[in-house]
Write a structure and sequence with these properties.
Elements lengths: L1 E8 L6 H12 L3 E8 L9 H8 L2 E4 L3 H14 L1 H13 L5 H24 L3 E5 L3 H12 L3 E6 L8 H4 L1 H7 L3 E3 L2 H9 L9 E3 L28 E6 L8 H14 L3 E6 L5 H11 L5 E5 L6 H7 L2 E4 L8 H8 L4 E4 L14 E4 L4 H13 L1 H18 L2 H4 L1 H12 L6 H14 L2
Parallel strand pairs: 1-2, 1-4, 2-3, 4-5, 5-6, 6-7, 8-9, 8-11, 9-10, 11-12, 12-13
Helix pairs in contact: 3-4, 3-5, 4-5, 4-6, 4-18, 5-6, 8-18, 10-11, 10-14
Length: 431
């Protein structure tokens, strides 16, 4: 069973869950061949597995004129009707504006390269993660080579402006759409035709619980913190606005004012690091904060093992895999009561959920956990048990395995890809 996976950048630091999914599918018997729109720079490949996956992944860009011309010529000669339907659709389905028209021509150019690769390798189905450039290229490539495609949608980046995201037409043309939470599935249904709802499925992401375990060599101490031994907080994620790190810094300042001894380590990097460092200085909490930078999966376990509580005060999320890693590592968690997070954390059982953008409530939740080590111990055990039972990647991948097997078992030509694209465009023009 051969299938292609396409991402805008693979393997990326912040998307290790995609690699886990691919590995789980391979374990289930699929021949998953990976493609990336752009090659990930070598300095961002932090583990041996990252480097191995990068080496076996085919990049679409950069593409010289000769490669582009040859790929499109072969794609045209194989299936001229599909080629012209995809070209027409790339013009018709683009968002308004000249700039968007140019970008969609780029997507068509990239799709021609991917379609040629799929045809030469005998691949009939391509799966894309995120409703971004990868989805644009995958659906046009499927149309060109008369194959099929599917996608996984995650969070705020996928449910953007319906005019520019074109999520409605993507769901219409996809063989199926996987959403990482019930909340995400509801958002996908909101932006799609009810006739296509049966093809929208919830497929949780998952992790390998054996890789993330409570520290066995030095058991975590669930004791009240002191000035010499502060409560060790950990947050992991890209330093970008949606993660709510400014709220966490305000909560740390609040805890300092209350006299609650804490220290927080920020793992990750991103565009807001300098702003966060300036905010640390403004609050005068330098002694409470450490910025560790980007950490590879080979070493992230050391940070979970050293922490007492995991904090993720996000404004917008899909279903955060870092929360699963922390819970599997035996950490009580504090996070925002938003999107798919309540489907993962049961408030008061596996962790604490607070309203987003409320540093006072975040600080209070952390202070309460600091005051009651027995609650931390109970939540840690419950969190670990929940991940092992329900979010093991070998369990969460099963619905995707069935969806892909059903798609690949259908040997009939997938003419509906372009047909559904055209139908979606027709619906939009009559509104």
């Amino acid at each position: 069973m051969r299938v292609a996976y396409l991402c805008s950048r693979y393997p990326a630091i912040s998307h290790t869950f995609i690699m886990r999914e691919i590995l789980a599918l391979r374990d289930a018997g699929f021949d998953v061949q990976t493609f990336t729109v752009r090659r990930v720079p070598p300095n961002e490949l932090l583990t041996e597995l990252d480097r191995a996956e990068s080496a076996r992944t085919r990049a679409i860009l950069p593409a010289g004129p000769l490669r582009l011309l040859v790929a499109h010529l072969r794609a045209f000669l194989r299936r001229p009707a599909g080629y012209f339907r995809a070209l027409l659709e790339s013009l018709r389905d683009r968002p308004p504006g000249l700039r968007n028209g140019v970008w969609y021509m780029y997507y068509f150019a990239e799709a021609g390269i991917l379609a040629d690769e799929l045809s030469r390798r005998g691949i009939r189905h391509v799966h894309a993660h995120f409703a971004n450039v990868a989805a644009n290229v995958a659906r046009l490539a499927a149309c060109i080579c008369d194959g099929s495609w599917s996608l996984t949608i995650h969070g705020h980046a996928d449910f953007g402006d319906p005019v520019t995201s074109r999520l409605r037409s993507k769901i219409a043309s996809a063989a199926f759409t996987a959403c990482v939470s019930d909340f995400g599935r509801a958002q996908a249904m909101l932006q799609s035709d009810p006739n296509h709802w049966p093809r929208i499925h919830r497929v949780f992401c998952g992790i390998d619980p054996e890789r993330f375990q409570p520290p066995a060599d030095r058991p975590r101490e669930f004791v009240a913190p002191s000035p010499d031994h502060p409560l060790k907080l950990l947050t992991v994620g890209r330093l970008s606005p949606e993660k709510g790190h400014l709220v966490l810094l305000a909560a740390l300042h609040d805890l300092k004012q209350r006299g609650v001894p804490v220290h927080c380590t920020f793992v990750g990097d991103g565009p807001k690091r300098s702003q966060l460092e300036a905010e640390v200085a403004r609050h005068e909490i330098q002694s409470l904060v450490t910025f560790a930078g980007a950490i590879g999966q080979d070493h992230i376990g050391d940070f979970y093992a050293a922490a007492d509580v995991f904090v993720l005060p996000s404004f917008s999320e899909g279903l955060p895999v870092v929360l699963m890693e922390a819970m599997a590592s035996g950490l009580p968690t504090v996070s925002s009561r938003i999107t798919g997070i309540p489907e993962l954390i049961r408030d008061g059982e596996d962790g604490v959920l607070v309203s987003p953008a409320r540093p006072d409530l975040l600080a209070q939740a952390i202070a309460d956990l600091a005051d009651d080590p027995s609650v931390r111990r109970r939540m840690a055990a419950s969190a670990r048990e929940r991940i092992v039972r329900e979010f093991d990647s070998r369990v969460t991948v099963r619905p995707l395995v069935e969806l892909l097997r059903e798609r690949l078992a259908n040997r009939e030509p997938q003419a509906s890809v372009c047909a559904e694209l055209s139908e979606g465009s027709a619906v939009r023009t009559t509104r």
